[in-house]
Design brief:
By secondary structure, the protein is of the alpha+beta class. It contains two helices and eight strands; from the N terminus they run E-E-E-H-E-E-E-E-E-H. The strands form two sheets. The chain has a five-stranded antiparallel sheet with strand order 1-2-3-5-4, with helices on one face. Strands 6-7-8 form a three-stranded antiparallel sheet, with no helix packed on it.
Length: 120
């Protein structure tokens, strides 16, 4: 099966792809990436409507995050509260509301690297 996914970017623990013009897939590169995906899927609704909805799907045994695509915005157009999230990584949803798309706590990756993962 040929996938026409567009590469969006990669970080320490996850690689992201645009599946179509509406859906982003976050594929984990390691256990930390998988735990970040799980965290986002379990916690997006606790963010006072600041984070984008996230769902999990399993691909080849890996927990992948799926989110609606957010339209990029200039850093000057981001709300002040965006600074509470790693890199202020967010954009506009289809309703024009600013949402964060990368929101595991900053300490999470460091703690897992130092103490290990429950998945190890």
């Amino acid at each position: 099966m040929k996938r026409n996914w567009k590469f969006l970017g990669t970080g320490w623990d996850r690689t992201t792809y645009l599946i179509d013009e509406r859906i982003v897939l976050k594929f984990p590169k390691n256990a930390i990436g998988e735990e970040c995906n799980i965290f986002e899927a379990l916690n997006w609704f606790n963010s006072e409507n600041q984070c984008i909805q996230t769902k999990l799907i399993k691909i080849n045994g890996f927990q992948c995050a799926v989110q609606p695509y957010l339209k990029p915005v200039d850093n000057n157009d981001k709300p002040d509260w965006a600074g509470y999230y790693d890199g202020q990584q967010g954009g506009l949803d289809k309703g024009g509301k600013f949402k964060i798309y990368d929101f595991p706590p900053n300490w999470m990756g460091n703690a897992i690297r130092a103490y290990g993962s429950y998945m190890d």
